[in-house]
UniProtKB/TrEMBL annotation:
It comes from Eubacterium limosum. Keywords: Heme biosynthesis, Lyase, Porphyrin biosynthesis. Its EC number is 4.2.1.24. The lineage of its organism: Bacteria, Bacillati, Bacillota, Clostridia, Eubacteriales. This is Delta-aminolevulinic acid dehydratase. Catalyzes an early step in the biosynthesis of tetrapyrroles. Binds two molecules of 5-aminolevulinate per subunit, each at a distinct site, and catalyzes their condensation to form porphobilinogen. Pathway: Porphyrin-containing compound metabolism; protoporphyrin-IX biosynthesis; coproporphyrinogen-III from 5-aminolevulinate: step 1/4.
Length: 321
């Protein structure tokens, strides 16, 4: 413990403080939907919205005013099919959203989620054989199409969340072959099969139509496996590695940071957001809990925090930091 004479003096506390938050640490998720004039609150995620493409410019103005300069886009199209075609076509919802963002605010840094579950009629992130085994080659081929289509539309970074074996290597090659060597990949390196994703699946309309995702996401009981997955992503060419969810897996973030020289990201997922948001709104927790939740994620080793609280952070920093 620090000597009392250090802890009692506010100026000294600031001088020796080990961890601080800034607006450069956070990425804000946006859910883009088909239609017009839509800003619809997501029932399980208070103060988070489905936005139609025409509503994006106004949202970007709000984000800029709040100091948010990094976003990650998720598409929620009306139409899906068995081949996940809406994920990789030139006029897909994410491809159009990227172009709108870049036209409105060229300095906004756009990360795109690369997966198939929002676009595939069965809600899964991959394709299956009749016996239930994953069609790895077809899954990777389709994911690579999605990756390149996002880069062509103007994405600054891609973030594959599918968890297919070998996906980082395949996507890196696809990007390089298409002339996008400078586009970085943020891997969902340790993505657990977590119940904390529930509200997101409501938001993204991506709940699987059958079975679950435990065959390609990680068992929450396994930490050594998580570290191996991080190492594999590094070896395959990832530029940033991620742990998801964040707060229930702070131990994984800390361990992974020790073995990785790459920047570490963490996703403060929808279930974490819903619990804290609802508790604060109900008066069960002070709003400082929002700030503290992000501070502990950064303290554990995450430089990048994907969080639905990004809009709140500027005011929280001014008040509590």
């Amino acid at each position: 413990m620090l000597p009392t004479r250090l802890r009692k003096n506010a100026a000294v506390r600031d001088l020796i403080r080990e961890t601080e938050l800034s607006m450069r640490d956070v990425v804000y998720p946006l859910f883009v939907v088909d239609g017009e004039n839509i800003k619809r609150e997501i029932p399980s995620m208070k103060r988070q919205y489905h936005l139609s493409l025409d509503m994006l410019p106004k949202e970007l103005d709000e984000l800029k005013a709040l100091g948010v300069r990094y976003i990650i886009l998720f598409g929620v199209p009306d139409e899906k099919d068995a081949e996940a075609t809406p994920a990789f076509v030139d006029d897909g919802i994410i491809q159009k959203a990227i172009r709108i963002v870049k036209e409105k605010d060229p300095e906004m840094y756009v990360i795109t989620d690369v997966c198939l579950c929002e676009y595939k009629s069965d809600g899964h992130c991959c394709f299956f054989r009749d016996n239930g085994d994953i069609k790895r080659d077809k899954s990777l081929e389709t994911l690579c199409k999605v990756t390149v289509s996002h880069a062509k539309a103007g994405a600054d970074m891609v973030a594959p969340s599918d968890m297919m074996d070998g996906h980082i290597e395949a996507m890196r090659k696809a990007l390089d072959d298409a002339g996008f060597e400078s586009i970085p990949i943020m891997g969902y390196s340790a993505k657990f099969a977590s119940t904390f994703y529930g509200p997101f699946r409501d938001a993204a309309n991506s709940a699987p139509a059958f079975g679950d995702r435990r065959s390609y996401q990680m068992d929450p009981a396994n930490s050594e496996e998580a570290l191996k997955e991080v190492v594999l992503d590094i070896e395959e060419g990832a530029d940033i590695v991620m742990v998801k969810p964040a707060m229930p897996y702070l131990d994984i973030i800390a361990k992974a940071k020790e073995l990785s020289y790459l920047p570490m990201a963490a996703y403060q997922v929808s279930g974490e957001y819903a619990m804290i948001r609802n508790a604060v709104d109900a008066g069960l927790l002070d709003e400082k809990a929002i700030y503290e939740s992000m501070l502990c994620i950064k303290r554990a080793g995450a430089k990048i925090i994907i969080t639905y609280f990004a809009k709140d952070l500027k005011a929280l920093i001014e008040k509590y930091q």
